Amino acid sequence: MPLLRRTIFVLALCFVQSSALAETFLADPQTYRPLLKTLQAGDSLLLAPGLYKNGLPIHRLLGSPGQSITIAALDPQQPPLFLARRGHNTISIVDSAYVIVRGLALDGRGLPVAGVKAEGHARWAHHITLEGLVIRGHDHNQQTVAISTKCPVWGWVIRGNIIDGAGTGIYLGNSDGSDVFVGGLIEHNLIMNTLGYNLQIKHQNKRESVAGMPSDRRITTIRHNVFSKATGSGLPELARPNVLVGHWPLTAAGRNDLYQIYGNFFYQNPYEALFQGEGNIALYNNLLVNHVGDAVHIQRHNDVPREIDIFNNTVVAAGNGIIIRPPQADVQRLVMAYPQRVVANAIFATIPLVAESQTGNITGAFASAGNYLNKPLARLGEMDLRPREQLTSRFSVIPMQKYKAWNLDFDANPRQHNEVGAYSIKQMKNDWLPRLKLKPVSLVDG
C-alpha cells in the first residue's frame, strides 16, 4: 500500500485530523517501522490489515495534552496482527508520553515475552492509552504477562481490551514495590484464562522522584471489567486471586491514594479469592461469583489494610464471602486510625461476613442464594443475580458519597432508598446479564 501524507483530510472511514499541524500516515507490514520514529504530537499512524512480524517499538514518542500520537488499525474490523518474536516484547514502550495504541491484535505464540511492556530500562512512560487490543497466547508460564509496566508510570488508560490466555493478564509495578503505577484507569476489559492473576497492581514503597510525576493525591479506578479464572488456572501451589491490589506508599506522596473498584464482574477461582487487597480501597457495586471458593479477602500482603469501604456488592461464594483479616495486634490501631466499613452488601456464602464494622448487610448461606436472587447458580448467559424482590436495610449513605457512581447500581441504574446489593430493583430493559464478554459501554457511567 503506498504511503499517503496529507494535512487535515477525511478518510473513507470518517477519520478526521483535528490539528492543522498533525499528519496522518498509512502503512503496512513493510512500511510501518521507519514511520514510527517520525511521529510527532497529534500525528496518527494507521496500520493496514496483515501480519506484522517485527514488533511495535514505542520509543521516545512524545505527544502532548490534547495532541496524542495515535497508532491504530486502519480498519477496526480487520485488526493488524502482531506476532510475538523470541527475545522481544511485542509492544515495547520506552520514555514515551501521550500515546494511544488502538485496535491491534497480538499473538504471543506461547513464547516467554510480554504483549505490551513499559520496559524496565525506561525512565518513565506516562499518559499511555491501550484500547481495543486483543491479546492471546501469552501463557508460556505464569511470569509471561499480557500487559506489564516495569518503570514509573502515571496517567495510563487500559480500556476495552480482551486478554485470553496469559501467565498474568495485567501486572502493574514491580515485585519489590518500585516502579509505581499512579492514577490509572482500567475499564471495560475482559481478562480470562490466566494461569495467575487476571490483574495485579503491586504495593508501592514510595512515589518515585521523576520529572512530571504527580505528587498530589491520585485515584486509580478499576471499573466495568470482567475477571474470570473459571479455566486456565495453574498449579494450586502457584494459585493467585483474580485481582490483587497492594498498598500505597506508607509515608509522603501517595499515602492517601485510593482504589475505586466498581461495576466489575468477578467470576470463579478454584484456589484463591476473587479479590484480595490492602491499602485504601473502595469496593462497590460489583458482582462476585465463586461457586468453588472464596470471594473477598482484605488482609495483609505487604502491609496492613488501611481505609476500607465495601458496599453494595452482590456476593455468591461456596467458601468465604467478605472477610477482613487485620493482624490481631493491629486491630485496635486500625479501628482508631482507619475506618473499615462493610455496608449494604448481599452476601450468600458458607461464611458470609467477618468484619469489625458491618451495617445493613443481608447475609445467608450459599445454598440459600436462590431464595433472594433470580438465578445465582445458573450457567453464564442464564445466570441472573438481580434480586427476586427489593432488598433493603437501614444504613447511612454518608460515607459512600465521596466515591464516583456511589448511587448507581451495577448497570448504572439509579439506586432506590436503602437498597442492598449490586442491583436496584428499578430494572431497565437493557440490564446486562453477566457473561464472559466485554461489558457494554452504553450501560454504564462515563
SSE map:
Elements: E1 5-7, E2 23-27, H1 32-36, E3 44-47, E4 51-52, E5 56-59, E6 69-73, E7 81-83, E8 91-94, E9 96-102, E10 105-107, E11 116-118, E12 125-131, E13 134-138, E14 145-149, E15 153-154, E16 157-159, E17 162-166, E18 168-172, E19 181-182, E20 185-187, E21 190-194, E22 199-201, E23 219-223, E24 226-228, E25 243-245, E26 258-262, E27 265-267, E28 275-277, E29 281-284, E30 287-290, E31 296-299, E32 308-311, E33 314-325, H2 331-337, E34 340-343, E35 346-354, E36 357-359, E37 362-364, H3 369-372, E38 373-375, E39 384-387
Parallel strand pairs: 2-3, 3-6, 4-7, 5-8, 6-9, 7-10, 8-11, 9-12, 10-13, 11-14, 12-15, 12-16, 13-17, 14-18, 15-19, 16-20, 17-21, 18-22, 20-23, 21-24, 22-25, 23-26, 24-27, 25-28, 26-29, 27-30, 28-31, 29-32, 30-33, 31-33, 32-34, 33-35, 34-36, 35-37
Antiparallel strand pairs: 1-2, 38-39
